[in-house]
Amino acid sequence: MGNLFCCVQINQSTVAVKERFGKYNDVLEPGCHCVPWILGSRLAGRITLRLQQLDVRCETKTKDNVFVTVVASIQYRVMADKASDAFYKLSNPKTQLQAYVFDVIRASVPMLNLDDVFEQKNDIAKAVEDELEKAMSAYGYQIVQTLIVDIEPDERVKRSMNEINAAARLRVATSEKGEAEKIVQIKRAEGEAEAKYLSGVGIARQRQAIVDGLRDSVLGFSVNVPGTTAKDVLDMVLITQYFDTMKEIGASSKSSAVFIPHGPGMVHDVASQIRDGLLQASSH
User: Fold this and answer.
1) DSSP 37-81
2) Which helix (H) or strand (E) holds 17?
3) At residue 281, does pLDDT exceed 70?
4) Structure pTM?
């Protein structure tokens, strides 16, 4: 019915190319238009102004001879003021876009190592976008955004990269574990040194207390028992301590201490050794 009355409807976000006797005449915007077909006018076609997306998969090789598949996503649309150029100059814009994407990616990626491809994917996308913008603007197309959405190396390369990463992390973990064990050993040695120092201090204090006690015992005994000498008192104290020690050893069923020689008569020799040592120290 619209063709009968020479009326056509153009939907929103769409433009139509009008021809008269096969020659370009005008671009019709959304709305209702009169196209008198009886005067040779007709609609040659319609073009959408909506944003379109083209995903391009390009296989190429990196500088370190690794084959990768780069997936680029191109977002583009027709410029309303150049709709006639987009309609007449290109018969298949997607094929044209794909060819430019292949050209730029295969010129950029072979100059980079595999790791650099992942790090510089934004630079690759920018290079593709600049080349497409420069080439497609002459045909009435605007490049809105170019994204490198995926970089897919060979499966064996992926596995190798994961193994390299795992080995590096294991090496770091081993190093950290070694440092931790080193710190533990140092702290343990410091603790043992401190413990030995404190043990030595305790033994020194114990011996000092024993010496003080012996001195007090000798002085007290000499005062209370006239005629005794310091030697007599020291021999008696040593014999008393000897029997106390033997008693403690005998009372324990799990004792492993052994005195060689261990007879009571040897106490006299011990006393002589102590006395001789004290006399030599006094002479010096």
Assistant:
1) GGGTEEEEEEEE-S-EEEEEEEEEE-TTS-EEEEEEEEEEEE-GG
2) strand 14-20
3) no
4) 0.54
